[in-house]
Amino acid sequence: MCLSDWFLRLKRIADQRMKPVPKRLSSLSPYYYVLLGCVLSFVVCTQILITRLIFPFLRSESDLTEARSYYRAAASSAVTRTGSQNVPPAAETKAVPDPFDQLQAVNRDVTGWITLPETAIDYPVLLAPAGSPDFYLTHDWEKNETKYGSIFMLSSDSAGKQVKNTILYGHSMKDGSMFAPLLNYESLAFYRAHPVVLYRKGGEKACWKIFAVMKVNTDPAQGKPFDYQKTSFSCEEDFLEYLYQVRIRSMFEFPVDIKPSDEIITLSTCSYEFEGFRTVVFARRVRDSEKESVKVSEAVKNPDVLYPDCWYKRFGGEQPFLPDFQDAMRGGKLSWLKTD
């Protein structure tokens, strides 16, 4: 056998052993790599989601659970002791614990507690340091850094003045926490289910009736911003004019009257209709001997609500012509005003 025959024989053997890759397997191989890439992307995205969203939320809720347990334990003990018929009145007063004692042992900035029943709003209220008013935008009640921040008030709002309007600030988180439920007050049905807010400051416990809900801009390019962050007033007329400006901007007309002697709270959170927008809810303290209930069926949409200028440019409609405070007062158009 010649050399060329040997080469031909070896070639046939090699051809038989080196079978071609099946066509089906060859055509599936690119999809395999695509699938692998998708799986890896899913794993990475899940890790990011857990790290950036779920873990911070769980940590925030864990910290708040501790605060709520302190507050509820003391409040429950107070109810039990004051309701006992076997304890003399003098002993009752001494035995009732302050719900804020344990909270303030952790952080002296705790100054109150706010609850909107049947919603996520159930938080301690913090007093921001005088030199760092934005501190609690990024810190929890234990001063840990968090994107959730806290519900807080400014120390400048209560320094050496008689405060008629207490303003509380809080983030509107996309997961529905912090002050996010306030955005639901765009719905009259939500208001009818939640017409009051419970706000306790210091040793006082009070129920507050909501009387206005508005949208406010902070950018002058969107129209002249309304200064809703006013806390003290020079005189009774100054306070009433402020209330008038609040009422004409309210999305609804609520069956809640106001006296010049009343105290109010303002709840402010971010809104998303425009850059820098705020949703602001106003409430007044329930008076002594006044019922906490509200005739919610009498609440109606405000037909002439005054929005910021940018609102009409985007959503249509025309800005209503409204009298100033003095003309409205002379014309008897302050139906919500109740004299002392």
Automatic annotation (TrEMBL):
The chain crosses the membrane at residues 31-55. The keyword Transmembrane applies. Keywords: Hydrolase, Membrane, Transmembrane, Transmembrane helix. InterPro entries: Sortase, Sortase_dom-sf, SrtB. Pfam families: Sortase. The active site is at 171 (proton donor/acceptor), 270 (acyl-thioester intermediate). GO terms for molecular function: hydrolase activity. SUPFAM superfamilies: Sortase. NCBIfam families: sortase_srtB (TIGR03064). This is Sortase domain protein. It comes from Caproicibacter fermentans. The lineage of its organism: Bacteria, Bacillati, Bacillota, Clostridia, Eubacteriales.
